[in-house]
Amino acid sequence: xxxxxxxGPISRSFISRAKTxxxxxxDRFYQRRxxxxxxxxAKRIICHSNYRPFKFVEIGVFKGDTAVSIIKLxxxxxxxVEYIGFDLF
Length: 89
Description:
Layout: H1 12-29, H2 33-48, E1 54-59, H3 65-76, E2 81-86
Parallel strand pairs: 1-2
């Protein structure tokens, strides 16, 4: 049995939601290589340290986005983290 779907008019809100979703997916897949490497390294540290607490230092914090992401990743595995970050500005 064959069904034909009729496409109705597409609303502007639908298009804007689709663009927003596409942008978030694109950002996720096209992260900078250094960020992916940092998260890969953080996962390795967490797994290979048998989920023991660890400390890390970030030089050049800027807004602290990387630190927040790594801390959330550690919390996902229920690992305690000590963080030290400093920036010149």
